[in-house]
Each structure stands twice: as C-alpha cells, then as structure tokens.
Amino acid sequence: WFVPLMRNQRFVGRSSQLSELEAQLFVEGYCQKVAIIGLGGVGKTQIALELAYQTKSKRPNCSVFWVPGTSPESIQQAYLEIGRQLLVPGIDDKEADVKNLLKSYLGNENSGQWLLILDNADDLDMWIKTTEIGAKPTRLIDYLPKSNKGSIILTTRSRKVAVEVANNVIEVPQIDEEIGFQILGKSLRNQALLDDSQSRYSVTYLPLAIVQAAAYINKNDITLSEYLSRWDDTEENIIEVLGENFEGERRYHDLKNPIATTWLISFDQIRDCDPLAAEYLSLMSCVELKIIPQSLLPPVRPKKRMIDAIGTLTAYSFISRRLGGQSFDIHRLVHLATRNWLREQESLVEWSQKTVERLTEVFPDDDHKNRNLWRAYFPHAACVLASTLVPRDAKGRAVLLERSGLCLLSDGRYTEAEEQLVQVMEIRKDALGKEHPDTLTSLSNLAWALRNQGKQKEAEAMDRRALERRERVLGNEHPGTLTSLSNLALVLRNQGKYEEAGVMSRRALEGRKKMLEKEHPDTLGSVRNLACLLNDQGKYQEAEAMSRRALEGREKVLGNNHSDTLRSINDLALILRNQGKYEEAEAMSRRALKGREKVLGNEHPDTLESVRNLAWMLDDQGKYQEAETMSRQALEGREKVLGNNHPETLRSVSNLAVVLEDNGKYEEAEAMNQRALEGKEKVLGKEHPDTLISVSNLAVFLYNRKKYEEAEAMHRRTLEGREEVLGKEHPYTPGSVNNLALVLENQGKYEETEAL
C-alpha cells in the first residue's frame, strides 16, 4: 500500500463512476488501463482516491500504488519509494534504472494483483517524448508496467492523454445540486453558516470550488449568503476570492489549491503545444460563455489546424460542444480564470479589442435571411460592447454597435436598438462632426428606433434634422436625402399629419423614380408608403392600385417571403377590408400571418400586427369567437414585446373592446374602451386619428347601451376632431355625422338630426 493522501471522509456521490471503474479494472487475464477525464476541479483525484481505499477494503490481497503524474521527477520519486517498499532488488543502486526495475517487477505475475494510479497525467508531450537513456531511446509511457494481474488508472484533464495511454475512458461530469449541497454541508464547521441561501448557490458545481468556498467561509466566519455576495463584485475581486489558498489533507501540498489557479498549468501547456487553441480560448473568454458559434472563431488554413485546436480545448474539458457541433459552451470558472490569465499577461485589453474586430467581420446586415445568424451573435456582441476594457471609440466598435442595433430593429427589439444607436450617433458626432454623412445615417437610424417605439415627436425632430442636413450636405436628389424624406413622411403619417406626409411621400417617390430604377427596393418602398397614406385618407381605390403595384414589384424583386413583401401583403389586406372585400382581405391576412410567423417568428411586432389584422377580418364576418381568440393573442403579445403603452398595444386594446362587445361581453368591453382611450390620449394626444377612433368606439358602445347623452358628447367630439384633422371628405367623417344623427334622433332632437 503506497497512497500518500488521506481518505476523504466528506466524499459523497459518484457511485456510478466508481461502479464503472471497478467493473472495468479488475478483469482476470488482462492488464486494463482506464482514464478518468474531466475539467480541473471536477473531482477526478477524489474518485481515484476513494477507489483506492475501497480496493484496500474489498481486496486485501491487491496492492495499491499512487504515482503523481505531474512531472518526470515526481514519477521517478514515486517509483523509487514503491520499489523500496516492495524490496525490488537493486532499486537503491547508484546507477539503477528505477522505472525499468519497477516495471519489470510488477510485470512478473508472481508479484501478485496490483492497482497503479497515475494522478494528474495532463502533459501528453511528457509521456510520449523520446529521450536517450543508455543505449536506446525511450518514452515515459513505455515505463508503465503490464501484467495480467495488474490494472492502471490515470486521472487527466486531457482527452488526448487519455486516448494515447488508456484502453477505456470514463468522463466525470459536474456534480448535481443535491450532491453539491452535501459536500458544502460536510465541509462547513458551523452548519448555521449555511443559512437560507442554498437555493442561491450558483457558484459552480465543481467540488473543488465548493470545498474552497467552505474553507473561505470557515476562515472568515461568514454566512453562505455573504460569500455569494462576493460574486456580485468586480471580476478582479471575484478572482481574488477564488485565489485564496486553502489546506487539504487530500490534495498535494506543493500544488496550487485555489480554483482560480488550478488551470494555469493547463493554459501554459496549451499555449506551448497549440498556440491556435490558446488564441481561440482567449477570444472565447471575451464573449458570453454559452452557445459560442464556431463561425466566430477565425478560420485558418489548413482547416485541420482549426479542428485540432478545438479538439485540444475539448480534450482539456475547457469547452464543450453543443448538440449539432456548431457551437460551444465554456465553464464559468474557466472563463474567469482565462481572463485572469490574460490579465496577468497584460493582454486582456488586446484580446477584447481583437474580439470586437472579429465580431465586426462576421456580424451580418439586417436582412431577415440572416436572422438566425444575428441572433446567434447578439449575446456575444452585447458582452464585448459592454466591456469597459474596449475604448468607446475603438476600431470597429461603432460599426458593431450599428450592425447590432439595426438587427435589433429588424428583430422588433426597439428599446435595445435605441440604446445602441444612441451610442453610434454620439461616437460619430464626436469623431466625424454632426454633418458627416455617416453621422446623419446614425441620426436617421435612431429616429427609426424612436418611431417604432411610438415616440413620434422625438422621431419627427430627428428626421427633420437629418433631412435638413442631408439636403445641405448631399443635395436634394441624393439617395440619403430621399430616405430622410421617406422617413419623415412615415412619422408625419403616424401623427395624422396627412397633408404634409403626402407632400413628403410624393417627393420621395418622384426622386427615387428619377435616381433609381422603378423596381428598386427603395422605389417600391415609396410606392408602398404612399399607398398606406392614401388608405389613411380614405382614398381606397387609388390606395389599392398603389398597393398592388408595390406587392407585385416586391414579389418579383425580393421574393414571396421577404419581410417587405409580407408587409405589402398585410397592407393590401387592410385596404381590401376598408372596401368591404372581406374574403380576399382574410385570405391576404392569413397569407401575411403565415409568412411572418415563418420568417420573423411568432413574437415579432410585425407578426403580432398580422394577428391583430386577421382578428379584424374575422370580426367583420361575424366570426366572433375566433376573432376574440386572435385579438387576445395579439394584445398579450404586444404587451409582452412592446409594453402596455405602445401605440400598437393600445390599438390592440381598442380592437379587443370591439370584439368583446360583439360577443356580448359588455363590462369587459367598456373597460377596454376606457383603457384604450386614456392610453391614446396620453401617448398620441387627444386629436390623433387613432385617439378619435377610440372616442368613436366608446360613443358607439354607449349608444348601444342607450346612454344617449354620454354617447352624444363623444360623437360630437369625434366629428369635430375628424373634420379638423382628416377633413370633411375623409370616409370616417361622414360616418361620424351619421353616428351623431342617430343618437340625436333617439333623443327626439329631430331638427338637428334633419340638419345633419
């Protein structure tokens, strides 16, 4: 018996690994070699140590030998001490080949049954490198004894060592939560320090980290919750806590115990034997630690170098492949330790900058065909952009901010987009000046984000500023100027300023027809915008013709499933509805919804718009139950994605109120009508066309409940507002006249009714 480490009295769990080891090792007639592999700190040594003591108890005739495999010197010394204990002849001779003598001794079956444990055999080069000893070259691996009565275990972080040395491999995963709590409880001297924070213990499920946490708690007499609060501190302070050394009878006194430093030797080995793997690990430490796309890693030639580098990192268990093999996770503590390693080498800032530049290279544009790709990169871009290590004006940072911001816009994440686009504008304004074309593009993009959040007045101010500066800097017919015209038209339309919006829309369309081709996507965008404006103004036939023109052009140029094509399908459905063409409108709405669900996802604002619109069509046709279901789905989605006070959310509240009334659910309908009106008055203003729709809806509801005086006041307000905002010729205005006449007639006010 030669095992220099004490048995771990706090050892728990790992029964499956121990059973598997015992089943594989003790096979008569064959020298079995089994490797235990896993991340540093996962408990490989403790499993091997527990097996050694179990073997001593269960198999008293089996000798057990422990050899630290960290260096040739530690192996030489262990072999010498084992040889002395076994009284191997010649072991103490001055010129003795100690390793060969012990190998020969154990290789003789007369030496009996034995188990040799090689612990921490992580350095492949050390085991397979050829050295000159005596007359012939030898390798360290060649000194492993072989006997039909012998078995060998090696613990290693390196899969490459495991495959080279062993016949079988047993992987050791992290422990589960229950076992983690048991280890923690057994390691604390004062159980009261465990307090009520067990459910929050999320440091890691690595036994070494848990034992170190317990040692820190014991030493400082603090509670677990106090220890966990250190994890909310800065990265440097977390590393300082994790760098606290601690003593343990079941670990080597000459090795670094802290979890923060336990991987340093592995980092150095990787850097020396596979520099590309070290570069990949450095880059991964600068991004989010989950679902890191392989495409983020810089490609190299030959491709085998990349495959080998990834293999090295997985071999050391520093990263793990996700299902499908195209992305990786890196353990949180490895992530922290790698960053600390880079910080000590004074290269963390450099690698943070390199990561920004790499993300700038791979981050796609905001075309929806790239949605899966940009969603894969979002968390990693956010991580490095939030880093204080990357200067605000660092190379590539503004470009990455802009691309990420525009993709967030396309993904319907408007608030996040605004946060990034504000930074882009400020960086470019400081670096290039407020009238540089790139600064004006940033200003225009920010206005777009504000408009989609319903912040129409702020967006209008920015769009006017962008237009004025582009006209001055670029000229009236530059594509950028025409884009600003189009954007300003949209924000004016959203505020019900239809006349000025019309002027801007027609000017943008004429400019684009002149400067671009008729079927250019931007030209078709102007055709679409004008069609929507004509619809708002009640000019339905002209709007339908323009909308069909935009749709046909987009189908031809962009394809049937492009987000802009789907937008045109949605527009046409609304215009058809306004003309009473319900069947065709419903078919168009269903087509738009199906396409948007496929291309944009179920929770994208545009998809929720299609859900709302389809609910309209169904309600128009008396399909009230289905309409209510769709209306609630649209409202719940918009509340979640856009917030309760976004104009589109308030439109869904208003729509649901109408459907509820049609279903005879009057109390809920009235509450929804009031909520919609109050919200629109606050967000859009009392005279906005959408607000007037809610005033009209509530007036109709009151009329149907025979509350004629209240209904009359509401109808008067609607009529006066529509005459002023929309004009007397808009289709909504005569409708308001008719509604007021009906409520007056029911009150016996016949003269005023006749006048109307």
Automatic annotation (TrEMBL):
<feature type="domain" description="AAA+ ATPase">
    <location>
        <begin position="30"/>
        <end position="176"/>
    </location>
</feature>
<protein>
    <submittedName>
        <fullName>TPR-like protein</fullName>
    </submittedName>
</protein>
<dbReference type="InterPro" id="IPR002182">
    <property type="entry name" value="NB-ARC"/>
</dbReference>
<dbReference type="Pfam" id="PF13374">
    <property type="entry name" value="TPR_10"/>
</dbReference>
<dbReference type="InterPro" id="IPR019734">
    <property type="entry name" value="TPR_rpt"/>
</dbReference>
<dbReference type="InterPro" id="IPR003593">
    <property type="entry name" value="AAA+_ATPase"/>
</dbReference>
<dbReference type="GO" id="GO:0043531">
    <property type="term" value="F:ADP binding"/>
</dbReference>
<dbReference type="InterPro" id="IPR053137">
    <property type="entry name" value="NLR-like"/>
</dbReference>
<dbReference type="InterPro" id="IPR011990">
    <property type="entry name" value="TPR-like_helical_dom_sf"/>
</dbReference>
<dbReference type="Pfam" id="PF13424">
    <property type="entry name" value="TPR_12"/>
</dbReference>
<dbReference type="InterPro" id="IPR027417">
    <property type="entry name" value="P-loop_NTPase"/>
</dbReference>
<dbReference type="Pfam" id="PF00931">
    <property type="entry name" value="NB-ARC"/>
</dbReference>
